[in-house]
Write a structure and sequence with these properties.
The protein is mainly alpha-helical and about 120 residues long. It has one domain. The protein starts with a helix and ends in an 8-residue tail after the last helix. Helix content is about 80%, strand content about 0%.
Length: about 120
């Protein structure tokens, strides 16, 4: 199993756990926002993590993937915030809090799976 697949499966399980725990505490609009945030966050994080793993051994490529992933996440938050504010959606606060919370939590998970995918020259 690749590091990206392990990360994606664990990330999906973590997001599912958070959704299950918070679900009974939210109203219908906030639940929709929570699901929207989860649906947006998971593929973005999987893509950004796979880019990091892909360019792990290439100095310039790695930094480009790292900076690109950071800007991608910031752009996603800005776009979702703009759409939520302009639409006046009722669950907007829950959407933005969940989106940023999921991004942060999944970012903290990245180093665990990033290291697990490395191989040393002694192993080769």
């Amino acid at each position: 199993m690749t590091a990206t697949l392990k990360y994606s499966v664990t990330g999906a399980a973590l997001v599912t756990l958070v959704v299950a725990i918070t679900w009974p505490l939210l109203d219908a609009a906030s639940r929709n926002g929570l699901l929207l945030a989860a649906a947006v966050t998971l593929p973005v994080q999987a893509f950004a993590f796979s880019a990091l793993v892909r360019f792990r051994d290439q100095g310039t490529g790695f930094f480009a993937a790292w900076i690109g992933g950071t800007f991608l996440r910031m752009a996603i938050v800005a776009i979702v915030a703009t759409l939520v504010v302009r639409s006046g959606a009722e669950g907007g606060v829950a959407t933005l809090l969940a989106l940023t919370g999921f991004f942060f939590g999944l970012l903290l998970l990245e180093p665990v799976y990033f290291r697990s995918g490395t191989t040393s020259t002694a192993d080769a």
